[in-house]
C-alpha cells in the first residue's frame, strides 16, 4: 500500500510539473561506474543549455558527499558537493540550495532507512517537491545522478528509479572504447528500462584522441544494431590529461598535510602519475630530477622527513630552476607566469599551443615529507630539522609535511582521482571548454 501511495503521489506530482507549457523533458545524467566523468559531462551540458534556454534548473536528487553552505536566510544548509559547484559556477540564483539537493545520504543513513526511521514516501515527497519548485522557475531541468545506475538501491532510490520517478530521460556516460564500454552500458541500459525510464543518449568519455573517429563510427553502428536506433550517440570526447590533475590544495586535503612554503602554487596542477618516491642518494636523485625536468614540469617528490640531504638538494635545485620566475598571486587574471603555473601545464601533447608554450613553462616541482611512523624511535627523530624548515619558508618552496610512511603516502597519491569543485575554477573552465564542443546539442534537444 505504501508503494501504491508513492506511485499515485508520483503521478500527480509529475503531472503538475509537466503542466508548464512547452517545457522539455528533464535530462538525467548517470554513469556506468565511478570516475567516468559524469560531473564533467553535466558541467558541459549546463553550459550548453544555458546558451539555448533562459533559465536552466539543476537538481542532484540523491547525494552522498556533502558540504555546508550558507542559504539566502543566512542559515547553514547541507548540500551535495556537486550542487555547490554547479550553483556557484553557473550562478543559479533562481533556485534554492535545499531544492537542488533534496535527499542526502550521510553516514548511518542506510541503517536508519532499514530500521524504518526514514520512509520511502518522505524521500519521494522531497524529490518531487523540489522538482516542482525548480521546474516552475526554469525553462529546462538538468538532473545529475550519483555513481552508476544502481547506486541508491539500498534505500529504494537508485538512479534508474529516480529518473523514472521524475519523468526524466537518461544520458549515460561511459569511458571510451567499444567492447568494455558497451558491456557496461548494456547492463545500465537494461536497469533504466526496467525502471520505466528512457535512455536518450550516450556520451563516451576519455577516448584516446587518435581513435575518436573510429569509436564514433563503430559505436554509432553498435547502438543502431543492438538498441534499434532509439538511443543516440551524443558525444565522443577525447581524453584531456590536464583534467585529471590535482592541485596542491587537493593533495594537502587528501593527506591532511601542511604546506610549509610555495603557497603561490596552491592552485597549480600536478599529475599524480608524476610522483617519484625518493629512497636513493643525493647524486642519483639530482640526476633523475634534472632528467625528469625535461619531460615533467610539475614532478612530486615523496621522501622521509629525516632525509636532510635530499631536502637540501631539492631546495638548491628549486632555487636554481625558479630564480628567474616572477611571482604573482595564484588567482591573478593576467597572462603572465602565474597563469602558466596554474593553467597551462598538462595540456595534451598534440596541442600546438601547448607545444609552443612548453619550453617556457617554469619548473615547479614539489616535495612531500613523510614523518612519524617508525615504532620505538623518538618522535623528534622522525621529524625534519627546524632550520631546514626555515630554509623552506625562506625559499618559499612547495614543501608539504604529512604524517605517514613514504610508501603509504605514495600509494594514496597514485590512487587519488581529482574531482571537480568550485575551488578549482581553472579546471572547471577547461573541462567545459573541452567537452562542450564534442556534445551534439542539436541531436540531444531534437529528441526531447
TrEMBL record:
Question: Residue ranges of region Disordered?
Answer: 325-351
* Entry keyword set: Glutamine amidotransferase
Asked if the record carries the keyword Nucleus, the reply is no
**Known InterPro entries for this protein?**
P-loop_NTPase, Ser_kin/Pase_Hpr-like_N_sf
Protein's UniProt name: DRTGG domain-containing protein
Q: Which organism is it from?
A: Chrysotila carterae
Amino acid at each position: 500500500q505504501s508503494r501504491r501511495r508513492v506511485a499515485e503521489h508520483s503521478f500527480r506530482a509529475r503531472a503538475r510539473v509537466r503542466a508548464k507549457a512547452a517545457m522539455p523533458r528533464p535530462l538525467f545524467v548517470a554513469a556506468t561506474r565511478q570516475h567516468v566523468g559524469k560531473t564533467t559531462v553535466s558541467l558541459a551540458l549546463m553550459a550548453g543549455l544555458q546558451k539555448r534556454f533562459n533559465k536552466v534548473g539543476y537538481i542532484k536528487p540523491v547525494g552522498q558527499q556533502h558540504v555546508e553552505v550558507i542559504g539566502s536566510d543566512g542559515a547553514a544548509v547541507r548540500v551535495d558537493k556537486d550542487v555547490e559547484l554547479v550553483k556557484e559556477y553557473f550562478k543559479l540564483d533562481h533556485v534554492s540550495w535545499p531544492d537542488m539537493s533534496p535527499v542526502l545520504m550521510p553516514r548511518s543513513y542506510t541503517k536508519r532507512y532499514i530500521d524504518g526511521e526514514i520512509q520511502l514516501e518522505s524521500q519521494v515527497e522531497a524529490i518531487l517537491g523540489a522538482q516542482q519548485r525548480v521546474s516552475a522557475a526554469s525553462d529546462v531541468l538538468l538532473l545529475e545522478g550519483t555513481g552508476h545506475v544502481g547506486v541508491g538501491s539500498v534505500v529504494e532510490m537508485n538512479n534508474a528509479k529516480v529518473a523514472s520517478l521524475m519523468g526524466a530521460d537518461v544520458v549515460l556516460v561511459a569511458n571510451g572504447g567499444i567492447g568494455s564500454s558497451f558491456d557496461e552500458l548494456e547492463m545500465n541500459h537494461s536497469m533504466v528500462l526496467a525502471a520505466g525510464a528512457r535512455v536518450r543518449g550516450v556520451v563516451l568519455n576519455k577516448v584516446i584522441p587518435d581513435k575518436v573517429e573510429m569509436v564514433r563510427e563503430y559505436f554509432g553502428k553498435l547502438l543502431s544494431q543492438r538498441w534499434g536506433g532509439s538511443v543516440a550517440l551524443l558525444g565522443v570526447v577525447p581524453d584531456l590529461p590536464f583534467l585529471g590533475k590535482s592541485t596542491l590544495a587537493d593533495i594537502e586535503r587528501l593527506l591532511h598535510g601542511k604546506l610549509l612554503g610555495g603557497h603561490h602554487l596552491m592552485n597549480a596542477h600536478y599529475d599524480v602519475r608524476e610522483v617519484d618516491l625518493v629512497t636513493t642518494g643525493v647524486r642519483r636523485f639530482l640526476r633523475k630530477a634534472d632528467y625528469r625536468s625535461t619531460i615533467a614540469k610539475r614532478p612530486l617528490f615523496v621522501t622521509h622527513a629525516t632525509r636532510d640531504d635530499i631536502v637540501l638538494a631539492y631546495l638548491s635545485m628549486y632555487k636554481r630552476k625558479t630564480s628567474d620566475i616572477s611571482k604573482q598571486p595564484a588567482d591573478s587574471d593576467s597572462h603572465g607566469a602565474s597563469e602558466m603555473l596554474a593553467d597551462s601545464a598538462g595540456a595534451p601533447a598534440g596541442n600546438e599551443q601547448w607545444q609552443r608554450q612548453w619550453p617556457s613553462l617554469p619548473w615547479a616541482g614539489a616535495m612531500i615529507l613523510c614523518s612519524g611512523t617508525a615504532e620505538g624511535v623518538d618522535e623528534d627523530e622522525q621529524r625534519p630539522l627546524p632550520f631546514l624548515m626555515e630554509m623552506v619558508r625562506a625559499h618559499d618552496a612547495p614543501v608539504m609535511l604529512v604524517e605517514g610512511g613514504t610508501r603509504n603516502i605514495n600509494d594514496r597519491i597514485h590512487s587519488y582521482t581529482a574531482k571537480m569543485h568550485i575551488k578549482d575554477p581553472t579546471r572547471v573552465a577547461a573541462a567545459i571548454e573541452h567537452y562542450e564542443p564534442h556534445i551534439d546539442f542539436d541531436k540531444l534537444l531534437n529528441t526531447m
